[in-house]
Amino acid sequence: MVQLSGIAITGCGSAVPNVALGNDGMSRLVDTSDEWISTRTGIRQRRLADAQGSLRQLASDAARQALEMAAVQATDVDLIILATSTPDDLFGTASQIQAELGATRAAAFDLTAACSGFVFGLVTAAQFIRTGTYRTIVLIGADVLSRWTDWSDRRTCVLFGDGAGAIVMQSTSERDGLLGFELRSDGNQNNCLTLAFQPQPHHLVDDIAIGQGSFQPIAMNGQEVYRFAVKKVPEVIEKALFRAHLSVEQIDWLLLHQANQRILDAVAQRLGIPDEKVISNMAQYGNTSAASIPLALDEVVRSGRVQPGDVIAAAGFGAGLTWGAAIFRWR
Ligand code: ACO
């Protein structure tokens, strides 16, 4: 009989660019104010990568910290998954990180599920561990959305920031740390939030034309995405809790994708989770897409708020549309 392995999350790390742009700075760029941004979103500043800043560097720094906390050598890593929508190279950036870390044995690939990328990556990584295929996986959520933000669109540009977070996942014969999950997608609502390739016909020879072009900046129907998140995120968390045989009261922490404080508050309220259990750091970083969950996790672990054995309900949501929840134990 196949012996299924348990999953232990044994390390975390994060990295953000040095440059911070506050809401007052944003109001010099577009017609907005600190008052509007902070009351409507909870965001006070965001970190932005400069022209030399690479996704590879942020992601590698976060991964190195996570490996150090887990006391794992890079050469012992079997797999690196990079959840991102903003690769340095469309062919994938994970291999560059593998080289940067010196993780010579590891296979590496990118995974794209926008702001749900970290949760989708966690569940993907878990399958390799469960089946006994791999023992040690580094999962990174990293995005440099500033590259693709329309800096003249006040409805979106105030929201996003750059950053990276990472965890180390290892197989264990002791208690399983991934308690339940649920992943969902709805491509019918894709047009609510896009960073789309726009091809123009380019004639080659005879009647053969191919499409060449570039990606268009982020476009979002904020109200639709807001409504979607507030309705679907509680549902998916409840489903994951059901699979974990846990009740809402047994969650120590609610760790949502850091998109908007009002979304966090509304989801927590719907689930009956008190404010003190809700992890939030978007005031400092804005919406860092796939990075937001591991970035916030790293902060609360390093500050000692989250303790070994704590049960965390994490949920991502965003473009695709995609959404998903994972209930896991820290260490
Ligand atoms: N400053 C000042 N005014 C603004 C700004 C701004 N930055 N942005 C919009 N406004 C104005 C609008 O023009 C509008 O004015 P009008 O009534 O005269 O037309 C008014 O404020 C209200 O706009 P709404 O869009 O209704 O504002 P809302 O309260 O919905 O907040 C927000 C907008 C913050 C975008 C919200 O809808 C939201 O958070 N949506 C969810 C976004 C999200 O969760 N994304 C997650 C996924 S991200 C990913 O996957 C990459």
Report on the structure:
With 331 residues, this protein is an alpha+beta fold. The chain has two domains: 6-175, Peroxisomal Thiolase, Chain A, domain 1 (3-Layer(aba) Sandwich); 179-188 and 219-329, Peroxisomal Thiolase, Chain A, domain 1, CATH 3.40.47.10. 32% of the residues lie in helices and 28% in strands. It contains ten helices and 15 strands. It has helices spanning 23-29, 34-41, 55-70, 94-101, 117-130, 154-157, 222-243, 261-271, 282-285, 292-302, and strands at 6-15, 20-22, 45-47, 79-83, 107-111, 136-144, 162-172, 178-185, 193-194, 197-203, 209-215, 219-220, 253-256, 311-318, 322-329. The strands form five sheets. It has a five-stranded mixed sheet with strand order 1-7-6-4-5, with helices on both faces. It has a four-stranded mixed sheet with strand order 8-15-14-13, sandwiched between helices. A hairpin with a 5-residue loop joins β10 and β11 (209-215). The longest helix has 22 residues, at 222-243. It is globular, with a radius of gyration of 19 Å. The model has no long low-confidence stretch (mean pLDDT 97). Acetyl coenzyme *A (ACO) is lined by residues 32, 36-37, 40-41, 114-115, 154-155, 158, 193, 222-223, 225-226, 229, 259-260, 263, 287, 289, 318-319.
